């Protein structure tokens, strides 16, 4: 499979690298005719190669079709590759990738799910608002009661249908919500959303309960550490601020600046040179701004899926014709 792009990513792309930073890269490949005709040209493959040590080269590989699907979902990696300056390309991008770059604002939806979802999760963990632990405890208790009531056959849909979640939506709007999940077969599933984690209606109540317990345990430990500045996860805090800034720029300008203009600020957070309370409050504000920017975003409400898929089709067709 030929690489249509190979891009230096991670802290080097963001401008926050240090001498010991890993050398990460992402590759997008165009499958050959055999792979396409055998149906092997769709999913990502190869995973990570190399050891995760300073100076090592870790390369994640994605097929063209999977990469385009990621862009249509607004996934972080795909968006960053589309906006990466040429200086970070380790090989000359192919004409196929250049074509994707020309229309890069078209396939990226204003939902930019990965960006917004990450912001919500990090805000839930590190945010300054004091009701989040109480929200997690309330959801945990609700699900525990539902498990007792419905037993092993219980599903999240029971809670949604019975309205047990409604008081939580009013009491903790920043932590608990509902959403709809479109399925490939055209159906739409309802979901309970806790700290950005979507629990579809068909998820077993026991599994949902365990998930919230895990979230609560992690939140309590990390939030307490951040509050006291002892053992704070500074790297995760810097990621949260970076992702929030990237999401805000994408939604407001339809563009992503790399390296990040706020790289010095991110580096200060990453190395523990910032005030914990100030960073937690910054994450809260960023999420509020991102949520507001979504409503008035310059990005399309729905991506131009036909155009994006046409680029994949043309590349696959050319590969097949070249070998016949």
Report on this structure.
The protein is an alpha+beta fold and 324 residues long. It folds into 2 domains: 2-109 and 300-322, 2-Layer Sandwich (Beta Polymerase, domain 2), CATH 3.30.460; 113-295, no CATH class. It is 52% helix and 13% strand. It contains 14 helices and 7 strands. A 4-stranded mixed sheet has the order 1-2-4-3. A 3-stranded antiparallel sheet has the order 5-6-7. A hairpin with a 5-residue loop joins strand 5 and strand 6 (188-194). Helix 6 (113-126) packs across helix 11, helix 7 runs antiparallel to helix 10 and helix 11 (234-253) packs antiparallel against helix 12. The longest helix is centred in the C-terminal third of the chain and has 24 residues, at 205-228. Mean pLDDT is 84; it is low at 45-56.
Unreliable stretches covering 5 or more consecutive residues: 45-56
Count of folded domains: 2
The class by helix and strand makeup works out as: alpha+beta
The sequence of SSEs as H and E is EHEHEEHHHHHHHEEEHHHHH
Shape category: globular
Strand content: 5-15%
Layout: helices, strands, pairs:
Blueprint: E1 2-9, H1 11-14, E2 23-30, H2 33-37, E3 48-49, E4 57-63, H3 64-72, H4 76-83, H5 95-102, H6 113-126, H7 132-150, H8 156-162, H9 166-171, E5 176-182, E6 188-194, E7 197-200, H10 205-228, H11 234-253, H12 263-270, H13 276-295, H14 305-322
Parallel strand pairs: 2-4
Antiparallel strand pairs: 1-2, 3-4, 5-6, 6-7
Helix pairs in contact: 3-4, 3-14, 6-11, 6-13, 7-10, 11-12, 11-13
For the structure shown, list the relevant keywords.
324 residues; alpha+beta; Beta Polymerase, domain 2; 2 domains; 4-stranded mixed sheet; 3-stranded antiparallel sheet; 14 helices; 7 strands
